[in-house]
Write a structure and sequence with these properties.
about 675 residues, alpha/beta, 9-stranded mixed sheet, about 40% helix, globular
Length: about 675
């Protein structure tokens, strides 16, 4: 078979995932405000696609052309452009539909042309009091270096200052990172409810307040624009430079990196478009998109609900794990038996409280933890600093190469170091993506180690939005190996072995191949064999090929993939035993779970690693085998609920069609809600 038909291109598969997000905005069963917020998520995702994946493709094309290499990158670029342009039309249609639906619910998103006299007076005063201080026009002339001035993914108004015989141009930055995006204004009449205006449109209305008295003009016109830059950067290795200095230097490169996308208001004059493209160095490889008046739709993620409660999802109160309420402290609870938390259904407060207790507990001797993405006002960081002040031996592994969180992590690294914490960085090119902490505690005559192994970050904010697992255990078999992982992080080139942990890049690929091969052997011996995976992305060709081999041997394979999936299901003789679904819903499916039937005694792994080459071979990732049979059964039950979803599950296929799974004669099952109620039943006190 043609090799190209065995794999779906990962960029196109990613765009297909984002289409599933757009489906949620289109789904009339979702509350109105949630649909608007899905438009924001779609837009934010697309911004990141351009910064990372589109930019990488552009670099590949340029390198191939310089080396006179022929491949299909140019053709792929055209497919991507066409797909995005088509979806942009769907997006615009949906946005207009939702504006009408908001109006039906007495929520009005108005522009500067729809203002009453009273509203005009109110807005001018609002501008003077809250916005004017942030507005400084930049004149565009021959000397203006727009590339160095324009910030990535910020929206600007390009203003034509028109006099009788001349046009000057100025640029206004929309200060959306300093002020509210959506401003509630007084209603026109007592019958008009809840009018909202975007900060962009306040500036459009107040152009005269900005330019009058400084320029002579007959007319002012404003057109919005946005530029997206390549998010990659180079680490310039110097013998005398620390990794923190290298990362700081490299982040400055990102600020002036090459553009990859230029979006402009579709009625912008051609002469102005040409001027901006020239000033920004837009090339034929870049994406040039005519759009609406508003380009930072990611702001709509925080669209306020000024209407009735039913316009947003009914809240699901976070669940407390029953075990933590039965003991005087978290350590006693974990020592009694392993505890599994599943966010955002369970509260993240248990982990925060455990680290708070560790920071002052006189029995705690040492804490080791690795951080990748933490919350802006991280209580975990505060507990770690308090622990150091209380004389604990504290080691923190800070991942400075966490994309888009580099600057925040540099700040945390400096603050931790100042507090006396021993801070470790990964080697350049070897990101640490594992989610671990280890607390060493003296109990009577010996030391007990308490560990956390998770699938998601130590982040209070994302723990309310992402589905992720946290395993908390004092099992010496696991704890001893977690200690070895921390030793490996400090000495990544020293040989180390693991039995219960799957650690990239040490043993993950080998173990996964062995586990798949064992299922193949079972199937060939007429023993029931099966593999179930829940991961974010499946693009590694080595692992895909192994799954194809397993399917050909009769192994039944179920895949739940949120994002990219390069595997093609239902190819006769190759993947006909593989079913792939995806779920996009109110919570982002982020947990990674690997299940192998293992001759009727299932092996269940929770992991930080997706099945991508970078996660298996080029990052430090950790997966753990669940040793407690009750916890294994719980995870299998949760997976079954998801694989039986009849509301939010879509089939992934070679056509990237995103067809919803048909309910047929099965009962309606909305898996995220079903999971919540199942876990809630487990956490009820038993008489």
């Amino acid at each position: 078979m043609n090799q190209s038909k065995l794999y779906i291109n990962k960029e196109l598969s990613w765009l297909s995932f984002n289409e599933r997000v757009l489906q949620e905005a289109a789904d009339k069963n979702n509350p109105l405000i949630e649909r608007i917020r899905f438009l924001g998520i779609y837009s934010r995702n697309l911004d990141e696609f351009y910064k990372v994946r589109f930019a990488d493709l552009k670099r590949r094309i340029i390198i191939n052309e310089e080396q006179n290499l022929n491949n299909n990158s140019n053709e792929l670029l055209k497919k991507i452009q066409n797909k995005i342009l088509k979806k942009n039309k769907d997006f615009d249609y949906l946005y207009n539909e939702l504006l009408l639906e908001m109006a039906r619910n007495k929520i009005f998103l108005i522009n500067e042309r729809q203002l009453s006299k009273n509203q005009q007076v109110w807005l001018r005063q609002y501008f003077k009091n809250y916005l004017r201080q942030y507005i400084t026009p930049i004149m565009i002339n021959n000397e203006t270096n727009l590339v160095s001035f324009i910030k990535d993914d910020h929206t600007y108004l390009t203003v034509e200052i028109i006099s009788s015989n001349h046009i000057k141009y100025a640029l206004l930055e929309i200060p959306s990172n300093r002020v509210k995006h959506f401003i509630s204004i007084p209603p026109k009449t007592p019958y008009q409810h809840k009018p909202i205006i975007l900060v962009d449109n306040i500036l459009r209305y107040c152009l005269n307040d900005i330019f009058k008295g400084f320029f002579d003009y007959d007319k002012l016109n404003a057109y919005s624009m946005k530029m997206t830059r390549d998010a990659e950067y180079d680490l310039i290795m110097e013998m005398e430079s620390s990794l923190m200095e290298l990362m700081s230097s490299s982040l400055k490169q990102r600020l002036t990196a090459e553009p990859v996308r230029f979006v402009y208001q579709r009625d912008m004059p051609d002469k102005l478009i040409e001027l901006l493209c020239q000033k920004l160095g837009i090339s034929s490889y870049d994406s040039i998109i005519a759009g609406s008046r508003y380009h930072n739709f990611k702001d709509f993620i925080k669209f306020p609900n000024v209407g009735k409660a039913h316009l947003v999802n009914k809240p699901l109160p976070r669940l407390r794990h029953i075990c933590f309420d039965q003991f005087r402290n978290g350590f006693d609870a974990i020592r009694d038996h392993d505890i599994l938390l599943y966010y955002p259904y369970h509260t993240f407060e248990h982990v925060l409280e455990l680290l708070r207790q560790a920071s002052f507990d006189p029995s705690v001797l040492a804490i080791k933890i690795n951080i990748y993405r933490v919350a802006k006002d991280s209580r975990i960081i505060e507990s770690i600093i308090h622990a150091a002040h209380n004389g604990k031996k504290v080691t923190v592994v800070v991942e400075l190469q966490a994309r888009f969180d580099e600057e925040a992590n540099i700040y945390w690294a400096k603050r931790l170091t100042e507090a006396g914490v021993h801070v470790i960085f990964s080697a350049p090119g070897l990101k640490i993506h594992a989610k671990l902490f280890l607390v060493s505690r003296r109990e009577e005559t010996h030391i007990v180690h308490y560990v956390h192994i998770g699938t998601g970050n130590f982040n209070e904010k994302t723990a309310r939005l992402y589905t992720d697992y946290s395993l908390l255990t004092a099992d010496t078999r696991i704890a001893n190996e977690v200690q070895r992982v921390f030793n490996f992080i400090e000495n990544p080139y020293r040989s180390v072995s693991f039995k219960h942990l799957m650690v990239s890049p040490q043993n993950s690929r080998r173990m996964l191949y062995q586990l798949i091969d064992k299922e193949i052997t079972s199937a060939q011996s007429d023993i029931k064999a099966g593999i179930t995976l829940k991961i974010n992305n499946l693009v590694d060709k080595g692992l895909i090929n192994r799954l194809y081999t397993a399917s050909s041997a009769g192994v039944k394979i179920r895949l739940l993939i949120r994002g990219m999936c390069s595997l093609v299901p239902d190819i006769l003789g190759i993947s006909e035993n593989i079913q792939v679904i995806s779920i996009v819903d109110r919570f982002l499916e982020h947990a990674r779970v690997y299940v192998f039937k293992n001759n009727g005694n299932p092996l269940v792994y929770l992991s930080s690693a997706d099945w991508m080459t970078r996660n298996i071979d080029y990052r430090i990732e950790v997966g753990v085998s669940l040793l407690d049979p009750k916890l294994r059964q719980r995870v299998l039950k949760l997976l079954d609920l998801q694989f039986n979803d009849t509301v939010k599950a879509r089939f992934l296929d070679k056509d990237l069609s995103n067809r919803y799974v048909q309910r047929g004669n099965r009962r309606k099952l909305h898996s995220q809600l079903a999971i919540y109620h199942y876990l809630k039943s487990l956490e009820q006190p038993h008489n």
